[in-house]
């Protein structure tokens, strides 16, 4: 990034920008919103509360040109192997190309539709002949967070015959046990969702679930009626004993954190019906078209990415808060933590050189109104300068007087917080002083439905991609997660053989304390 011609100019501009107060930009230009907002049908991105001027924006746009962003967008969409460290394409946009679907994608849509139909029409029956009423998705990371986030958000508009959905991801087993306590084996179906079908977290939970069914079912064929597999690994699904019609596929060119657009989204289709699922893909596809075709200066994904680069590299902000003003987006921050930090949490360039600039924000978040009563204190008066994304919906989710009241209260709070963070306020004493100057975006969507949710997720995906191009890093691999998995297997062996030799003293000490505690009880 540093060798791009506009870099040094941006550094200079950044130094000046740090000296001015964000609120002064509003004093200088009373129509700042018009100049610093961008839109497409269904969404307005207001970035007027960013500490950026027209000149700075122009220079950021130049930086994007110099980094060959257009070329990279073409590579992404044309299926080039942009994930070079795994020798793969990153083809998630092809999964939502409704006008021109790949034959293999279409084929899986049909298989998925057949399964959804069998469950909705109560044809899929368990070992005792009873119809399925509950579906438990067993998966972790990308095989959990996307479907969990989306189905939680859209719960209120599910299709009439949708089964109850449950999500289990944690390998400690307690989450699964809690869920199983509420369910009947006869009417429960498990989706074993794993791109690799080798993840110990998922496979260990799936085995426990299978044993639970086996305690009631007397035949293997009856037991396997209760399991569906979703994976890129057909041989492993077969080995696990999954029935051929219960195996849904996707492909290695779909990254784990981008897999909710593939058959991993089965729970979304079960909840929304195939039509709703397609609306979700359609929303993402509309964002893809916008990203590919709209000039950078009006392109919401490009602008969102560049603003982030400006904040991280030139204004030295490390934190990014995700603040949806809608409780339905309870899991959005968890989902974006993986999307953003697993993608851009990298320390070397594409060619393997160590970077000497920051590459990724530390992202966290919470439903806005609740976060106001928790960590907003730090944003208003702490020593950290952070950036925030406020997410708001224009339409209320109901039309009674109380709906309108709550909706207005919610809008007022969202706008009040972004304004307070921006302007601050001089206090009568230092404890009551609000420095202000905290930057934010507001993403205003028409409403929260499958289509607009698809649009929002694709927006964040593309913003992450834009940032990776500027930083010259590969956002599609995640080698960083491997080391811990390997060491966990080594330690498991040590635990099973009660042997602490060759371990560091911290690990030894903790294991010995655990064993002593276990012996005492
Ligand atoms: O879907 P799976 O192959 O089971 O992988 C589940 C998750 O685990 C890995 O460790 C990666 O960090 C994630 O990117 C992935 O989504």
TrEMBL record:
Compartment annotation: Cytoplasm
| TM region(s), chain numbering | none
* Swiss-Prot/TrEMBL keywords: Cytoplasm, Gluconeogenesis, Glycolysis, Isomerase
Q: EC number(s)?
A: 5.3.1.9
> One Pfam family from the UniProt entry?
PGI
Q: Which residues form the active site?
A: 342 (proton donor), 373, 485
InterPro entries, per database record: G6P_Isomerase, G6P_Isomerase_C, Phosphoglucose_isomerase_CS, SIS_dom_sf, SIS_PGI_1, SIS_PGI_2
Q: Which GO terms describe its molecular function?
A: glucose-6-phosphate isomerase activity
Q: Which SUPFAM superfamilies match?
A: SIS domain
According to UniProt, the reaction catalysed is:
alpha-D-glucose 6-phosphate = beta-D-fructose 6-phosphate
* Involved pathway(s): Carbohydrate biosynthesis; gluconeogenesis; Carbohydrate degradation; glycolysis; D-glyceraldehyde 3-phosphate and glycerone phosphate from D-glucose: step 2/4
| Family per record | Belongs to the GPI family.
Entry function: Catalyzes the reversible isomerization of glucose-6-phosphate to fructose-6-phosphate.
Name of the protein in its database record = Glucose-6-phosphate isomerase
